[in-house]
Amino acid sequence: MGFHSKLVQVIKVGVILSAIMAAAITAFPIALPNCPDSCGNVKIPSPFGTTEGCYLNDTAVDGDYFINCTSNAYGQPQQMIWNINVISISMEGEIDIQMYNSIDCYDEYGTPLSNINPWLRVPGFRVSVTKNKFMAVGCDTYAYLNGILNGQPFSVGCLSVYNNTRSIVNGTCAGIGCCQIDFPRDLTGVNFKAYSFKNHTQVWKFNPCSFAFIIQEDKFNFSSDYLISLRSNETLPMALDWGDCTCIDLNPNNGSGYRCNCMVGYGGNPYLKDGCQGTGIGLIVMLVCCSWLYLIVKQRKLIKLKEKLFKQNGENSIETAKIFTIEELKKATNKKAKIVDQSQIEQFVNKIVVLSQINHRYVVKLLGCCLEKSIPLLVYEFIPNGTLFEYIHNEKKVSTISWETCIRIVTEIAKALSYLHSATSIPIIHRDVKSSNILLDSNYTAKVSNFGALRLVPLDQTEVATMVQGTIGYLDPEYLHTSQLTEKSDVYSFEVVLIELLTRRKARIDVLEKHIATEGNVEQLKEVANLVKKCLRLKREDRPTMKEVATELEGLRKTKKHSWINVNSNFEETEHLLAKTSDSSKYDVRNKSTEVYDKSTEGPCDVGLR
């Protein structure tokens, strides 16, 4: 069965289960059998009811839960409790009603016109202290809220007096045109009244009335328009808490009172016999199916993205390298890719084509690539013994490498670079030769690695102009100044590595790395130092090629001399390189800009190694 068919089936199952769950939840009975469960668009759950025998009615709370379902003057259903309009009743223990507004109005001469004083005395119901505020609106106004608290009379009030509207800020009820207060929990039998200090004679033009009311806080946002318009609002929304059975404490923030509640995993109306029905298994099934559906859709999107990136990153251009998946790489390494822009993709493909053709024992082998990420990745063979840099600068490790091993390692590096320069189909300049880019396998065989900066040289050219790239300290100074890159730039970097290996930053023969100085043949050391000096000449045309360097080093290993080496004629020069300080001026390639300075306190082998 195809992926599309499976996806369609999972979607169907998810939709069906969702519909079943929704139907089951809405099918829970909320009213007693044979009792209406709504009046108009308002649901009427038990213990409320609209007819005799359908609501809670005992001597303690006689008639409190009766909803009078009538019609208004327009023939529309109207839900009334204690002659107050009902907005909604929730199973969470809240009933929203339209409570009356206390209005105290006067004419321009200060004569009283109307006065409404609301009250609410209903056993078993309490004004919600978490949902409501007591507010007074007016600029010549004070108001009181009265009630019974713990069996004792209780009063609280606020006032607002101001003779103009210039300082009134809409949306703020802070004493100018509007004041508000909280009231204590467990307050019952409430009544409230608005008053005026001077019968609004000084503010009558913009505020002829005082107003006081209890209102749901989220339903009221003060505006200066209310100084007049609230006169037409006879009622405003208020929330009450209901419930008086010994089940689960309803809301400790609202004070005393209890409400029955179904246990976790069950739904329905706990006031009915067998009113709580299990929903846990069905809900779990639905969540599992939804999660499965989400994962499948996500996987599908991931596959499409991988296909897009695969094509974008050169799907048909990689014929000689193995294609790895991102999952395979996650298991093999924790290395992260560096960000590249889209313009580098073509260059990346060209490099893979060339690198995949390299087959040399001293060059780390390219195994393949991964094209499934927005940043394409190269995959090389694993080399277990770390880098040459780690052995050069680690006291414990460097003692494990003999002079014979050192000369073999540098010979192998030279052969690898010579191969890249002259034996590949397109000449390759590494451009970042340094000890940390030389890997050592289990037999301490050198492997040139990290071709992130390599540059391909067209067959009809010997040098290319390019943006300077590499590591300061190893960079060819002429390349650094002119941006003209040739194979001799790698020669320079290689000899810096050779100095680093021989001296570990020391320049004189008496402070060569201890076991090399005692173990190595002094004449060999001098000849290697002489070779280093030739390779570090500032003018690239005066340097030997990498092939000549490799041949010379191989000859040293076999105690033979190449024809262009004249040890005797260079003996003085070699002694100067290894043992003497220099008073001449030299180029310091440790800085990004080139400067001439006196290095009288340093040996000439300390080139860019700090």
What distinguishing features does this structure have?
610 residues; Jelly Rolls; 3 domains; six-stranded antiparallel β-sheet; 14 helices; 32 strands; disordered C terminus; EC 2.7.11.1; transferase
Structural overview:
The chain has 14 helices and 32 strands. The chain folds into 3 domains: 94-242, Jelly Rolls (Sandwich), CATH 2.60.120; 313-380, Phosphorylase Kinase, domain 1, CATH 3.30.200; 388-598, Orthogonal Bundle (Transferase(Phosphotransferase), domain 1). It is elongated, with a radius of gyration of 45 Å. The longest helix has 33 residues, at 280-312. With 610 residues, it is α+β, with helices and mostly antiparallel strands. The strands form 11 sheets. It has a 6-stranded antiparallel β-sheet, with no helix packed on it. Strands 8-7-16-11-14 form a 5-stranded antiparallel β-sheet. It is an enzyme of class 2 (transferase). Residues 582-601 have a biased composition (Basic and acidic residues). Residues 582-610 are annotated as: Disordered. Residues 258-565 form the Protein kinase domain.
